[in-house]
Amino acid sequence: MTDKHLASCSLTRRRFLTASTSLAAVGMAGSMMPMGATRAFAAGEQKIQSGSHWGVFNMTVKDGLAVKIEPWEKDPHPTHQLPGVLDSMYSASRIKYPMVRRSYLENGPKAERDSRGASDFVRVSWDKALDLVANEIKRVQDESGPSAVFAGSYGWKSPGKFHNCRTLVARTMNVLGGYVSGTGDYSTGAAQVIMPHVVGGLEVYSQQTSWPVLIDNTDTLVFWAADPMKTCQIDWLIPDHGVYDYLKAYKATGKKVICIDPFHTETAKTMDAEWLAPKPQTDVAMMLGIAHTLYSEGLHDEDFLSTYTYGFDKFLPYLTGDADGTPKDAEWASKICGIPADKIKELAKLFAGGTTMLASGWSIQRMQYGEQAHWMLVTLAAMLGQIGTPGGGFGLSYHYCSGGTPTANGVSLPGIGDGKQSSENKPEWLASSGASSIPVARVVDMLENPRGEFDFNGTRATYPDIKLVYWVGGNPFAHHQDRNRMVKAWKKVETFIVHEAQWTATARQADIVLPATTSYERNDMEQIGSYSNQGIVAMKKIVDPIGEARSDFDIFSAICAKLGKEAEFTENKSEMDWLKSLYETASSTAGTKGIDFPSFDDFWEAGSVLYEVPQANKEFVRFAEFRDDPLLNPLGTPTGLIEIYSKAIERMSYDDCPPHPTWMPARELTGVESTKYPLHVNASHPDARLHSQLCGTELRKTYAIDGREPCVIHPDDAAKRGISDGDLVRVFNDRGQILTGARVSDDTAPGVLRVSEGGWYDPADPLKEGSLDAYGDVNVLTFDVGTSKLAQGNCGHSAAADVEKFTGTPPAVNVFTAPAAAE
Ligand code: PGD
Ligand code: PGD
Ligand code: 6MO
């Protein structure tokens, strides 16, 4: 695409935005145009199908320009975010050219680093940019070895089995000699490490007891810190959006739904649920209060506890207070969590009096000591004795990727591999240079403490000394906590390379920025439904790359070529060769399962392959086999049972993760003397974005207040501070300050501010430490410690702050347009 064409794109963009994006247009059948990889875009209009984290969609393309997006006719509940997908292709924040930070271009890796983030970029040719990148990887590998390269590169890259940029960066680094990676994720950092000790598997990413079973059998459905109406809009793969009809069907039964959440969620409203708002970060205390009532009233299931669990006897003295003199009764819990003791007792009786499903979200483990929340939830469910029964027990993923939507009888589509680190390479550099992988949320700790030691799940390892950081498919300057500390720590890095499609805060911090295509500018394919696996969908190229953007695959191929390793990287296969070979592998697996698979060409033309859902999967009950026979079907824990007490964790002797579920107040718990600031910051996931994705689009207009990220404030807190709805407000603590727009509403509990994660960081003066963030990145306020030595997860949901009406001249928001030289 030429510069002239780009200019015409931005001219026409605004026009088609107004005419497009009507979700009412669901059902307009796409006449799928078969698309070849090298197809040139003809004049005229066509409809092309692709897929994204937001769903399968049909895009109308006119004279090579995407002009209208419509959800797939088979999508039962398209997300209101879909219009942002179209806008993200042409938005003013799009990266069009390879750019290098001026000072870096002039002085290389020894350049001053203070001007990082100040957007002083110089446009360079692709050849120049690729030379810089290839030479720098080689320099660092030669001088310092693979342990000096961090390419953990966490993030929600786009779906697609081939253009999987995080796998591609790993593949590149493996081909070129090795790198340091990241372990775990930001979503379930604490839960996915504790759960294997408790139930023998990650659990957070497991299929749930199916929705039809809940509809038929559950009496009380509890959404504990879970808002599926909001969070099931998206999927790690391509969403099936199956949960929405099930929620509707559940509601139609008229059965009880309870939402335990400091925010009156969309789910609570939709389901006419009883809303209980505990003080944030105190759920473990509330659960203990319920557990104590169950025990003291004899409502706990002793048979279940003795047959299916280990260690209740060791937990019991803590619960009753025999161990420490403090009974964890309803009155005790009430003082901590703010829910009246009578209500806590009532919940215990209600839960024990019928079939109860405790469906938990993940925010409560994205907090200091977050391991305890899900451990205590499982313990509570074990005391109720309903785990493994139809409609009872606990579920940790009903709010994610439409968990509980029955799984189809299909196959998994394989993806391009990462080429694995060669075994000769690994031990040598590992032995001398520290961990080859760090817990993913310890990245800043790692940069601050080269050669420092860290604990993780029973091991002690050494942080490597990182010189080069390479990021693709993630936005660490949105997702990581304590932004000001992070900006400072990042200055220790000699070179920071980023591939991005958008001028995110991360791209702005880079020394070398390479423009990546979006999924809509390349061919790929992906599965529908992380849990339901309903089928495979073709993600067809919609338009030619914008500006000089290239796919991550092409960029890495070119870098490997410069270092003489192109064939190892590409295996001499083109985009379409890869898609066909991955499809053929799935097709032969399908053959062995007796599933009829069309040829690749037929699939590509039709746009999808959809599978049948067997009746048995509609009746799936999680843990049913274990319940049926715990000896024949033991869990993967040391005892084969649900571990309420873990000897493995006991052996670790961690002061911040005791061997049974324990209430420990997080630092910055509001209302206690040691906490300086009075308001809790609820940094939950945004309703109209996927993290930071689509923040740069027109969708922002649907929620921004005076151009800033909204901060929801309870009317009492607002009144105390003279704040009115729509005011610009400064939210601040000792770590930083952000400008936001006040939304005064009793949707949030008193004492709790809600500012969703993913707002683009936009420091008013990037050269000044702690400068006011003009748009509203909540991670300016959060703190950066591990949940505990066990999991080292992030604590994105733990922070206290205060808010005041902003007076004076507000700084301009600059982050949504490209830096001047990049236009
Ligand atoms: P995204 O905004 O999705 O956030 O953090 P994550 O980094 O995943 O960023 C993905 C980036 O990848 C986008 O900038 C997008 O443009 C880019 N991208 C997409 N596709 C491609 C591609 O094909 N190639 C390249 N090169 N780039 C691509 C999310 C993380 O945030 C998560 S998962 C969670 S659960 C955490 N949640 C919280 C929280 O609850 N509270 C706080 N305070 N903080 C959090 N941070 C975490
Ligand atoms: P959150 O919105 O952070 O989502 O799923 P997760 O469940 O972690 O939190 C859920 C609820 O917990 C919120 O309603 C919040 O108010 C509540 N909450 C916060 N603190 C507390 C507390 O102390 N106690 C109680 N009881 N409740 C509390 C995140 C999941 O969503 C993940 S990990 C990803 S990567 C995806 N991200 C998005 C996204 O960015 N945007 C949308 N629309 N959907 C997503 N789905 C996925
Ligand atoms: Mo997540």
From TrEMBL:
The record's free-text note on cofactor binding: Binds 1 molybdenum-bis(molybdopterin guanine dinucleotide) (Mo-bis-MGD) cofactor per subunit.
EC number: 1.7.2.3, 1.8.5.3
Residues in the signal sequence: 1-24
Location of this chain's protein in the cell: Periplasm
List of residues binding Mo-bis(molybdopterin guanine dinucleotide): W156, R366, N475, H479, R522, D552, N779
Primary enzyme class: oxidoreductase
Domain Molybdopterin oxidoreductase N-terminal, first and last residues per copy: 50-90
A Pfam family this chain is assigned to: Molydop_binding
Keywords attached to this entry: Metal-binding, Molybdenum, Oxidoreductase, Periplasm, Signal
GO molecular function, one term: trimethylamine-N-oxide reductase (cytochrome c) activity
Cofactors (names): Mo-bis(molybdopterin guanine dinucleotide)
PANTHER family from the UniProt entry: TRIMETHYLAMINE-N-OXIDE REDUCTASE, TRIMETHYLAMINE-N-OXIDE REDUCTASE 2
NCBIfam families in UniProt: bisC_fam, PRK15102.1
Protein name: Dimethyl sulfoxide/trimethylamine N-oxide reductase
Organism: Breoghania corrubedonensis
